[in-house]
């Protein structure tokens, strides 16, 4: 009788991981490799037959393009301010929702609403909300006598940037809230009891107990939110298309414009490669400086 | 998998319905010698057609489906509407992804870019069948798209933007006849309205970073006698000129009397501003009147269209005319033959062409004389209530036609589509109206962008 077919634990492990590995190679590794390859080519999407190797010329182009640097600085401002506000509001709201109040679960559920609604829908709604003539924001502010003249939210460079940040903060603060709230619910109450016994007030307990307990989760949340926000395309494109002028261009919008509007797919790919390098370096430095994971390594 | 068999005309069996329908277009078909002889196709599937927003694309496709019912019952033509500001991106991404539709209705700058890139099927055979001598006076086939002796585009309609004026306001404020205005009169009228009507802008045009701004500004540029490229001199860049500076300066002067939000306005917002009574004058195509008739009857009744104000010295009244046409992608297009047949059917049916024009009056103007002169075309409420305005859109505007694809009608320009893809004109305007750059410097910036486009795309100039 033939012996049953058996696999070693190692082989079973590899078998289980194979589909995920294949998916990762197909959907992540291949596009990244292809983008890196394309960054060294002149590639007009309408005329792929004219594709030629150009070496570093695409990178030279973007580094010499003032719009690239404008986009970089605007992306930095948009990302930093978005993350700061998301983190502050996220922690504050999580602390509020951590209270044991009747019906609090309903509020926690409602909080997810901005995060659930598709960005396209949100951007279109916000365009109406921000409409200077018929938008509800100006109407409310004027009704409350807070402003006399309508604010042109999307028509002036500074207000357009503020509006895109506002949208990003509104949409993604719930993500921070969820992560922080989950961590808060696992903080041992004994720590607070001990702090109270030591005479610590509310602020002291927050600074010395809550915040250190949230440190690890906040580091992870901030890294992810920074990467996602820096790469964000659809919110800006749908809300302002990078305008007025190019005042809300970030590098993702710049890459898109170069690829599709300017038919310079190689330049767009080179921009993507530069963004990847910037974010990788930034993330590594941040994780090192913040000391992420050092607690686990400590004996 | 679809099967394919095109029957020879001699094999055709023409049914009674076909004959009756053919009779409806008898005047045209007889003149073209086409008759109702269409090749039969046994192929099946959906024929994707791209059009701009508006009912007329649907009317054209209905005509094509009528052809399909008789000659290719397994085929169904379906319209996909592409928003104006998304046309370029949608076209480029789908063509790059090698999944173009089988038929595209598009404005002449993009059509000419596609044509010069070699992405379209020549349609000279269709021109003969549709009727080479049918075009209305003042236009040529090449305005829609011809390149190196071959026709690539079949006219869908012509479509100028003009000066829309609320005549009730003009009368109330004692303004002169807008048909006599030059740029100074237009500016003064905008100023007077803004000063005397506190809740109303004197004038509105698009100033956003979009196609509409490109189109609005180019009319002023051409009126001033300026242009982007010199078609007579191998398309050398001609944008850094006193004429460009003058047009930019004029926009800046007008901006003082526009809605403050105009710096982000595109097509829809300009229509909104006029239809909601937030401006007394605007640059726009006939669509504004259609919207006003539906949503703001008093504004519809008070609004009339005029050829643009004259430039004080050149006396030009250049408008922007879309010269919208049908083009057939050459690559990855499984239905070229069927699309050609359906296009011939639609283009030779006076009934369908009149329905096409009537579907959004007076936005889409007839391109063929037999349609333009047909009494049935005038059998529409707009034509009866505003004959002068409709005739201005349909006929008298043609004497002032221009576009970036054929600047001052001096030569087909295959670079214009790329210019609009990059929003070069709109960005130049925004340098002046948002960044407060001097018009001279903005003109230099625009000229550099245009030089880059020319240098990168010399291959298109042949």
What is the straight-line distance between the termini of chain A?
Answer: 54 Å
> So, the CATH homologous superfamily of the largest domain in chain B?
Periplasmic binding protein-like II
Number of strands of chain B: 13
Q: How does the overall form of chain B come out from the CA principal axes?
A: globular
CATH class of the largest domain in chain B: Alpha Beta
Strand content of chain A: under 5%
Number of domains of chain A: 1
CATH class value of chain A: Mainly Alpha
Low-confidence stretches of chain A: none
Q: Work out the helicity level of chain A.
A: over 70%
Please tag this protein with its features.
heterodimer; A: 299 residues; mainly alpha; MetI-like fold; two-stranded antiparallel sheet; 72% helix; globular; B: 462 residues; alpha+beta; D-Maltodextrin-Binding Protein, domain 2; 2 domains; 5-stranded mixed beta sheet; 4-stranded antiparallel beta sheet; 11% strand; disordered N terminus
In a nutshell, what does this entry contain?
The complex is a heterodimer of chains A (299) and B (462). With 299 residues, chain A is mostly helical. Chain A has helices at residues 9-38, 57-64, 66-97, 104-111, 113-116, 119-129, 136-143, 157-184, 189-197, 202-230, 234-239, 251-261, 265-290, 294-297, and strands at residues 41-42, 52-53.
């Amino acid at each position: 009788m033939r012996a049953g077919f058996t696999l070693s634990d190692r082989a079973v492990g590899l078998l289980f991981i194979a589909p995920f590995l294949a998916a990762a190679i197909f959907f992540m590794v291949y596009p990244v490799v292809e983008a890196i390859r394309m960054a060294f080519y002149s590639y007009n999407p309408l005329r792929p037959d004219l594709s030629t190797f150009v070496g570093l010329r695409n990178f030279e182009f973007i580094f010499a393009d003032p719009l690239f640097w404008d986009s970089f600085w605007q992306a930095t401002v948009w990302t930093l301010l978005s993350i700061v506000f998301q983190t502050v509001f996220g922690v504050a709201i999580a602390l509020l929702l951590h209270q044991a109040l009747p019906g609090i679960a309903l509020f926690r559920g409602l909080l997810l609403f901005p995060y659930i609604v598709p960005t396209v829908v949100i951007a279109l709604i916000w365009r109406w909300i921000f409409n200077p003539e018929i938008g509800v924001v100006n109407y409310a502010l004027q009704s409350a006598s807070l402003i006399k003249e309508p604010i042109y939210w999307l028509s002036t460079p500074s207000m357009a940037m503020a509006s895109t940040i506002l949208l990003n903060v509104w949409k993604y603060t719930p993500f921070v809230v969820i992560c922080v709230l989950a961590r808060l619910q696992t903080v041992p109450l004994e720590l607070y009891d001990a702090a109270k016994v030591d005479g610590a007030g509310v602020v002291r307990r927050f600074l010395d107990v809550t915040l250190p307990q949230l440190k690890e989760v906040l580091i992870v949340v901030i890294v992810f939110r920074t990467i996602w926000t820096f790469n964000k395309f659809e919110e800006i494109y749908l809300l302002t298309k990078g305008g007025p002028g190019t005042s809300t261009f970030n590098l993702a919008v710049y890459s898109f414009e170069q690829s599709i509007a300017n038919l310079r797919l190689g330049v767009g790919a080179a921009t993507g490669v530069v963004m990847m390098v910037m974010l990788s370096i930034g993330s590594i430095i941040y994780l090192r400086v913040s000391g992420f994971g050092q607690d686990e390594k400590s004996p | 998998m679809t099967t394919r068999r095109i029957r020879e005309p001699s094999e055709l069996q023409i049914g009674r319905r076909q004959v009756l329908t053919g009779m409806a277009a008898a005047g045209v078909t007889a003149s073209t010698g086409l008759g109702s002889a269409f090749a039969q196709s046994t192929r099946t599937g959906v024929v994707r057609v791209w059009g701009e927003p508006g009912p007329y694309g649907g009317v054209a496709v209905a005509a094509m489906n009528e052809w399909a019912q008789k000659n290719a019952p397994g085929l169904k033509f379906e319209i996909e509407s592409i928003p104006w500001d998304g046309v370029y991106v949608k076209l480029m991404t789908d063509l790059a992804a090698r999944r173009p539709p089988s038929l595209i209705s598009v404005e002449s700058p993009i059509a000419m870019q596609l044509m010069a890139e070699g992405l379209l099927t020549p349609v000279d055979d269709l021109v003969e069948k549709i009727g080479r001598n049918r075009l209305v006076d003042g236009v040529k086939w090449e305005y829609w798209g011809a390149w190196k002796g071959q026709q690539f585009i079949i006219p869908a309609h012509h479509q100028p933007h003009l000066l829309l004026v609320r005549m009730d306001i003009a009368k109330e404020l004692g303004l002169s006849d807008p048909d006599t205005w030059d740029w100074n009169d237009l500016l003064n009228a905008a100023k007077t309205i803004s000063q005397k009507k506190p809740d109303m802008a004197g004038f509105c045009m698009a100033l956003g970073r979009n196609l509409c701004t490109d189109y609005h500004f180019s009319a002023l540029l051409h009126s001033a006698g300026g242009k982007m490229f010199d078609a007579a001199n191998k398309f050398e860049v001609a944008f850094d000129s006193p004429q460009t500076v003058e047009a930019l300066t004029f926009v800046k002067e007008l901006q003082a009397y526009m809605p403050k939000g105009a710096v982000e306005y595109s097509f829809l917002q300009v229509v909104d501003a006029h239809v909601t009574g937030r401006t007394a004058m605007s640059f726009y195509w006939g669509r504004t009147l259609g919207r006003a008739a539906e949503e703001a009857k008093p504004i519809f009744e008070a609004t009339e269209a005029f050829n643009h104000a004259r430039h004080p010295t050149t006396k030009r009244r250049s408008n922007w005319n879309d010269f919208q046409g049908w083009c057939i992608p050459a690559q990855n297009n499984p239905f070229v033959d069927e699309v050609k047949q359906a296009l011939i059917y639609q283009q030779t049916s006076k009934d369908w062409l009149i329905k096409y024009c009537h579907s959004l009056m007076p936005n889409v103007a007839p391109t063929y004389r037999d349609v333009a002169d047909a009494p049935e075309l005038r059998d529409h409420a707009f034509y009866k209530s505003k004959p002068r305005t409709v005739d201005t859109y349909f006929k008298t505007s043609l004497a002032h036609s221009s576009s970036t694809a054929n600047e001052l009608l001096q030569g087909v320009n295959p670079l214009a589509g790329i210019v609009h893809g990059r929003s070069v004109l709109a960005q130049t305007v925004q340098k002046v109206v948002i960044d407060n750059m001097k018009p001279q410097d903005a003109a230099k910036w625009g000229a550099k962008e245009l030089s880059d486009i020319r240098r990168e795309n010399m291959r298109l100039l042949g």
